[in-house]
Design a protein that fits this description.
Chain lengths: ~800, ~150
């Protein structure tokens, strides 16, 4: 088994159910079977022997729940695991069995990736030292936990790694990952064999094995239940007998499975029946023969979705989570404010981005920590894959390890130093790689030069086991204003990379228009031409990029407009600011129309009315003071009197927010109001001190806090939202660093309000003068008083009133 | 709610990723129940909350209604399984009344709800995904009733 090839080159029989076997041997209900490795070793060994006698060539040691997050019994883990490995050694290969922790990882739950990884790594170290022949990760229902377990196995031993997941009847994991999503991740992590166990009987597993066989290049494992489980008076019952099980399992082998066993409800009789039917199995079970038909594909994934890149596709990689030229994002990173990133992520996906670039390169910032937390923040709200964009190898490593799914890595280039830093890390943690066609000599002026670098990157990558489908090459876009031939060379490079090298390509298209007027039209033309040349993906703003080819722009890009003279003459007179999408509603104008739209919560109408006021000569301050503020006050007062309700208040606040956004875009030049970091980019309040808000440590329910944030922002306050499950010391540090005027804390349950008290205690101990306000389902005025909070906010509107009182 | 609120909520309801799942089992004279809307609903809520306080609020209402419907469904299944003369009493959830929040862990463990429907309990006894509910119904026998 030390020879990985030998482990998987022919049909292998695994064992079957273990829990049901030890229960039959007398394990009391509620007793953890893991304890029997110490307390009843003979019974454990007898189960393993029965399976080996039935034909199992690989048995799973009794370590499924032997991780420190799940096991709470009396025995030390090293004894439990060592004993389990020893008891399983009875003539077959012995697998260290790794099951889930029983907790949900962030962002779905509260478990840190590192805690899960460490728990699994501890098991692997003990199991490997005890002589396990392989590691078998099983019954995983979450891709992020699956990744933690597989990496723990890979990075803490040299053993082969098998992995199986539990699907539901729709063919998905509990966290929503499809068969293809799981396959993309596990192929990328380099496991030796993978497939499915538990959850389904063999008949229901069949269509999913057929799907897996279309995308897997590894041996496929199946370990079905003896039918679907039923709970009868607290006991799980399975109804499929051994003959029926063997008959349907044979179909799984026909479909491509080559490592076969059973899970819940199966017994040595089931395994023996499968073994005895092996000669009836038709077709090839050889993974080598099955996989030779696969075309290598370039794929990336998240926890729930897979994106395949192909030539001429032109999919959009959202570029907006990159602080270059974005002051507000830089500030958000420095302040630890998650709201800006959340908004940009959602807006870009809504606008059509299929992958999101995440870059945290800001001087003076802990890039590794910021990149890790930003990737997690993005993945908490959108389901698309991410592109990890960093030049810092340490930050890359940290993000690669923890990102959910298989990311795109931006980037490697032809410099020796870059390849030495990027390739081993991507090999270790998985990913597809953007290859930049530049090296120590810079960017070649010709397509031939850029292709030569691409070939060199491919050759060097091959030494690490990467193939063409693992790469997406960036032909590099330079400004046509500086070099008339720039776009011609880029397009030629895209075409030749696609046709001659047979690789996927990517471009950051907007560089091409630098220094010229009407940049969107030039960018669109570059995108359109590059797609025709073969472009697989564009790194762009999804709200602006279109496949539109303006003939005049084409002339510029193809060097037919000398010095861009015609383009400049045609476009120089254009207003620099693009018109807002909002248009004035018919027959409505002035502050009355704006106020009415806000009061009714009509976002588009409010934006249009604000634009109409500005267009008719009103100042930004007029729009705010005569239109927005009176309307918000009216709704706020009605809410407090009980004649309007929370949803109306929130809709009005959203509409006011959109009107603010128009003022920011179109009325900025004549605005007397000052900047802040809220989405409206300005505040109507006197104080420049922000409000720091967070859901406290241990509490992951944040909808209430999010409502408070939205309302405060739409009333013009500068809010730093630190997110949920935030440690007291982080809140205090962020409040201190930002000179916050207020700290708002939210907690939902009695079990988490203690963290609220601790945060206030630490804030006072640190000497902060920020006023504290608290709220949440179980918080009362009495409790707020008892923990020393300055204010109790019974609802979101009360938070606004408190802020108005404190910050003016 | 005003007309705009009602129509916005209805619009959101159509796009809500509701994949309700529930499990229940009888343990002696008690039925344990657990239902959830799954992780996708949480992500959808966070996504709405990034851009709109009102949508965050409406999604909360939609989620609460949907998870209660799932609990009603599995409670009805449990009721239908009772023997003649047995009555299922109203369900009660940990964290309300006399029932401690910590009881959620026992319900999740005994129903194997983490493996079966993806519901887990955090260190602070909260259920994840957030739109999840645990409950217990007592079973009364006819001779016990006056």
């Amino acid at each position: 088994m030390r020879d990985k090839e030998g482990a998987v080159s022919e049909l292998k029989f695994l064992d079957g159910g273990f829990g049901t076997m030890v229960q039959a041997a007398g394990l009391p209900p509620g007793k953890d079977p893991t304890d029997w490795n110490i307390e009843n070793p003979d019974a454990v060994a007898a189960v393993h022997r029965a399976y080996v006698e039935a034909g199992s060539g690989i048995v799973l040691a009794n370590t499924f729940g032997a991780n420190r997050l799940k096991y709470h019994g009396p025995h030390p883990l090293d004894r439990l695991i060592s004993s389990a490995i020893s008891l399983a050694r009875c003539g077959a290969l012995v697998a260290l069995d790794i099951g889930p922790t029983g907790k949900l990882l962030k962002p779905a739950g509260d478990l840190d990736f590192d805690a899960a990884y460490e728990a699994f790594a501890e098991m692997v170290r003990i199991g490997a030292a005890a002589g396990a022949d392989l590691v078998f990760v099983e019954t995983m229902g979450d891709t992020r936990e699956l990744k933690a377990a597989v990496l723990a196995a890979k990075l803490n031993s040299n053993l082969p790694v098998f992995a199986t997941v539990a699907l539901d009847e729709s063919g998905k994991l509990l966290t929503g990952a499809s068969v293809e999503c799981v396959a993309t991740l596990l192929e990328s992590l380099g496991v030796d064999a993978y497939g499915f166990n538990c959850g389904l009987g063999p008949d229901k597993m069949l269509p999913f094995v057929e799907r897996l066989a279309k995308v897997s290049t590894k041996p496929i494992i199946v370990k079905p239940n003896a039918g679907m489980p039923k709970l009868v008076d607290g006991r799980t019952v399975f109804t499929v007998g051994s003959d029926e099980f063997a008959e349907t399992t044979a179909k799984l082998v026909d479909a491509g499975a080559s490592i076969v066993g059973g899970c819940c409800g199966t017994t040595p009789a089931h395994i023996a029946a499968v073994r005895d039917s092996r000669f009836a199995i038709r077709g090839s079970c050889s993974p080598a023969s099955r996989t030779t038909n696969h075309e290598p594909r370039t794929t990336v994934s998240s926890g729930t979705s897979v994106i395949e890149l192909s030539p001429h596709q032109g999919l959009v990689i959202g570029e907006r989570i990159n602080p270059t030229g974005k002051k507000l994002l830089k500030e958000a990173y420095l302040r630890g404010d998650t709201a800006y990133v959340l908004r940009e992520a959602v807006k870009q996906v809504d606008a059509g981005a299929e992958i999101l670039d995440v870059n945290c390169g800001v001087p003076g910032i802990d890039e590794a920590a910021t990149l890790e937390s930003t990737v997690e923040t993005v993945q908490s709200v959108v389901t698309c894959p991410v592109q990890i964009d960093t030049a810092d190898p340490g930050a890359l490593e940290r993000a690669l390890m923890r990102v959910n799914g298989k990311p795109l890595v931006n980037s490697v280039n032809g410099k020796r130093e870059s390849m030495d830093a990027v390739f081993p890390r991507v090999k270790r943690y998985g990913g597809a790689i953007v290859g930049l066609c530049l090296d120590e000599e810079g960017i070649p002026a010709t397509a031939e030069g850029r292709l030569a670098i691409a070939r060199r990157i491919l050759d060097e990558g091959a030494k690490y086991g990467f193939c063409k489908s693992d790469f997406v090459f960036d032909a590099l876009t330079l400004a046509v204003s500086a070099d008339a031939q720039a776009a011609v060379v880029t397009l030629e490079t895209v075409r030749r990379l696609t046709e001659e090298l047979g690789v996927n390509t990517v471009l950051g298209v907007s560089n091409v228009s630098f220094g010229l007027p009407n940049r969107p039209a030039l960018n669109n033309a570059m995108y359109a031409l590059a797609k025709r040349a073969g472009l697989s993906a564009a790194i762009a703003n999804p709200s602006l990029i279109r496949d539109e080819l303006d003939p005049a722009a084409e002339d510029v890009l193809l060097a037919r407009d000398r010095n861009c003279e015609r383009w400049i003459a045609k476009n120089a007179a254009q207003a620099p600011c693009a018109a807002s999408a909002a248009s004035a509603p018919s027959g409505a104008s002035g502050p009355e129309a704006l106020g009415a739209a806000i009061r009714r919560g009509l976002r588009d109408d409010a934006a249009a009315a604000a634009k109409a006021m500005l267009d008719s000569g009103a100042s930004a301050m007029d729009v705010i003071e005569k239109g927005i503020v009176p309307a918000l006050e009216l709704v706020g007062n009605a809410f407090e009197k009980g004649t309007a309700f929370l949803p109306q208040l929130l809709m009005a606040a959203d509409a006011a927010g959109d009107a603010f956004a128009v003022v920011r875009k179109l009325g900025f030049a004549n605005s007397r109001i000052k900047q802040s970091n809220n989405p409206n980019n300005q505040t109507i309040h006197k104080s420049s001190r922000p409000i720091v808000i967070a859901t406290v440590k241990g509490d992951i329910h944040d909808i209430g806090k999010n409502i408070v944030r939205a309302l405060l922002e739409n009333y013009g306050f500068d809010v730093i939202d630190l997110g949920r499950d935030v440690a007291p010391e982080t809140i205090v540090e962020r409040a201190r660093a930002s000179n916050a005027g207020m700290i708002g804390l939210s907690a939902l349950m009695t079990t988490t309000v203690g963290a609220m008290a601790e945060t206030i205690r630490q804030a006072k101990a640190a000497g902060l003068d920020a006023k504290t306000f608290v709220g949440g389902a179980v918080v009362t005025q009495e409790y707020a008083d008892s923990i020393g909070a300055d204010f109790y906010a019974k609802d979101a509107m009360q938070s606004v009133r408190i802020a108005e009182r404190v910050l003016g | 709610m005003g007309d705009e609120c009602t129509s916005r909520k209805a619009e959101l309801e159509k796009s809500a990723p509701i994949d309700a799942k529930g499990v229940w089992a009888r343990f002696g004279d008690r039925v344990y129940l657990c239902g959830t809307l799954g992780a996708a609903f949480d992500a959808w809520q966070r996504r709405l909350a990034a851009l709109s306080g009102a949508d965050a609020y409406f999604s909360q209402q939609i989620g609460l209604d949907a998870v209660e419907r799932e609990m009603d469904r599995i409670e009805a299944e449990a009721r239908a399984s009772l023997a003649e003369g047995e009555t299922l009493m109203p369900r009660r959830s940990p964290g309300y009344g006399e029932m401690p929040l910590s009881l959620s862990r026992e319900i999740v463990d005994r129903l194997e709800a983490t493996r079966r429907i993806g519901v887990a309990v955090t260190d602070s006894d909260l259920l994840v995904p957030s739109k999840s509910v645990t409950a217990i119904c007592e079973i009364r026998r006819a001779q016990c009733q006056s």
